[in-house]
TrEMBL record:
Residues in GP-PDE domain copies: 22-244
Protein name: Inositol monophosphatase family protein
Pfam families: GDPD, Inositol_P
Organism lineage string: Bacteria, Bacillati, Actinomycetota, Actinomycetes, Micrococcales
UniProt xrefs under CDD domains: GDPD, IMPase_like
Coiled-coil stretches: none
Length: 529
């Protein structure tokens, strides 16, 4: 199957309509109707009109290519063993009726003569080698394409020189000629969180189609079509087809009335709340594996580390936001900027990664929505206390449904605690001067290793103030909104601010009853650098 044979150009730039509808890729068959990666699921997908059926391929212990997403048989079939350790005769007994793990050759036979092509997703080069032998030996006239890791595609090409390959793309940067040249791929396969106009444009200029996955909700389907995606991979072919048919019938213009900020904020706050609890569970349960900026194992280094938890959480959050608000911009700590409209989300998936790597339970996720640069909604998720601190502009701040409100009664620095974080040139010198000045006032300084929590705790009344050497909305946007909505004070050298400090500017948050005195001590310490 050559993807470009029926490649679409996507909607006109003026939004009046798509010249050709994107084709639909059914992921793992029809998993919302039948068990994934089975013959019944494939049959349903084909009956629903899927242009391509994407399936996962692995090998058994005796070298039979079978359909299975997971490395083990446990999730779907109740057997904890790795499929690669189990012979085909035992694998074939799992399940009942037609709900069984199929052989790849049986799938090729099932789709022989059908309009649906087959996309084989393979993760292990050894599995790819077995799958290529199966396809090469097949006498069935089923169109087959391949996708997987670079190692998998490198295994497929020598075995099947004319194979149609889809190149996975997991970056917000548009592919360049160096990225695609010599690979022979017909299609760029992009996760929805990485789909941008520049990526679509670059792929089309390189003569490649663009497939986006996984898109299930109506608005993201419309968004992907407007952006010019040629194929849309989905778990719900019927719903996606209905959305595309509606766009073809009614046109692709956006609604006449944009939702108000109040409407967006209401939906965004509910979404952020759900995301925060999902991230808490994931962070607590997921084993920490340290990776370098390139995503490969790295030895400990003095610089801020990155873990697989950071990356996994960011991709999870991006996917949730994209599904609900596909046109919003997004800036994340690990993957950078995605373009969008006047709304933009800022995310630090794990603030305090060094603590996480070293087993110290003092980390947080920070997620903040802004409109035109002003904070609208913010949540800080503390996995280790199971807390979600959340705020919405003009609606206050809460934790565990309890309102956070700082009174304005005078507070002495003596006996109080001020949180602080270091970072950037000269930060330690200023921190030392601050600690010394506060010690003279019998006030303690704590450096805990998560600037998000350092600021957010002040909103919760835990500490009289907190200071950070450089504001960044990725790390501090949600926490600053929490402080403001709890009645706290946000200050820069020049005085209080209503909103965000300038990016890169040192800032202080404080209980209103101690703000003046603490600000004087803090600005004096900054001046001593």
């Amino acid at each position: 199957m050559t993807t470009l044979d029926q490649a679409t150009v996507g909607p006109d730039r003026d939004g009046r309509g798509a010249r050709t509808l994107p084709r639909l890729v059914a992921r793992r068959g029809a998993p919302r109707v039948r068990r994934e990666d089975t013959l019944p699921a494939i049959a349903v997908a084909e009956a629903l009109g899927a242009d391509v059926v994407e399936v996962d391929v692995r090998r058994t212990a005796d070298g039979v290519a079978v359909l299975l997403h997971d490395e083990t048989l446990g999730r779907l079939w109740g057997d904890p063993r790795r499929v690669a350790d189990v012979p085909w005769c035992d694998v074939a007994r799992l399940g009942n009726g037609l709900d069984r793990i199929p052989r790849l050759d049986a799938v090729l036979e099932r789709l022989d003569g059908c309009r649906s092509g087959l996309l084989l997703r393979v993760e292990d080069p050894a599995d790819a080698l077995v799958a290529t032998r199966t396809v090469a030996a097949s006498t069935w006239d089923t169109a087959v394409a391949w996708t997987g890791t670079p190692e998998v595609l490198a295994t497929v090409r020598p075995a099947l020189p004319d194979a149609d390959t889809w190149l996975p793309w997991e970056s917000l940067a548009a592919p360049t000629a160096d990225d695609t040249e010599g690979l022979g791929s017909t299609t760029l396969l992009v996760d929805d969180v990485f789909l941008t106009p520049d990526t679509v444009r670059a792929a089309h200029e390189a003569g490649m189609a663009v497939a986006v996955r996984t898109v299930d909700e109506p608005e993201p389907v419309r968004w992907a079509a407007r952006l010019g995606a040629d194929l849309i991979a989905t778990d719900d072919v019927a719903s996606a087809r209905a959305v595309l048919a509606g766009g073809e019938r009614d046109g692709w213009a956006r609604p006449d009335r944009e939702p108000s900020e109040e409407e967006v904020a209401t939906r965004a706050q509910a979404l952020a709340h759900r995301i925060a609890h999902e991230v808490i569970a994931f962070t607590r349960e997921h084993p920490v594996g340290r990776v370098s900026s390139g995503g490969v194992p790295a030895a400990p280094v003095p610089a801020a580390p990155v873990t697989d938890v950071d990356r996994a959480v960011e991709r999870l959050v991006r996917a949730r936001v994209r599904a609900a608000f596909p046109t919003h911009g997004f800036t994340g700590e690990e993957y950078g900027d995605a373009p969008g409209d006047r709304y933009r989300w800022y995310l630090d998936p794990v603030d305090g990664t060094t603590n996480l790597v070293n087993g110290l339970p003092w980390t947080a996720m920070s997620l903040c929505l802004t409109r035109g640069g002003r904070p609208v909604v913010g949540v800080v998720a503390d996995p280790w206390r199971g807390e979600v601190l959340e705020a919405r502009r003009g609606r206050g701040a809460v934790v565990r449904d309890v309102p956070l409100r700082l009174d304005d009664a005078p507070r002495a620095l003596a006996g109080a605690v001020v949180g602080a974080e270091s970072g950037g040139p000269g930060a330690w010198a200023a921190l030392g001067a601050l600690a010394e000045a506060l010690a003279d006032r019998s006030c303690a300084v704590r450096v805990m290793g998560s600037s998000t929590l350092t600021i957010a705790q002040v909103a919760a009344g835990r500490g009289i103030g907190g200071c950070v050497p450089a504001f960044d909305p990725v790390d501090h946007g949600a926490a600053v909104l929490l402080v403001l909505e709890a009645g706290g004070v946000v200050l820069t050298r020049a005085g209080s601010v209503d909103g965000f400090p300038r990016v890169g500017e040192p800032f202080l948050v404080a209980h209103p009853g101690a703000a003046d005195e603490l600000h004087a001590v803090w600005t004096s310490a900054l001046g001593s650098r």
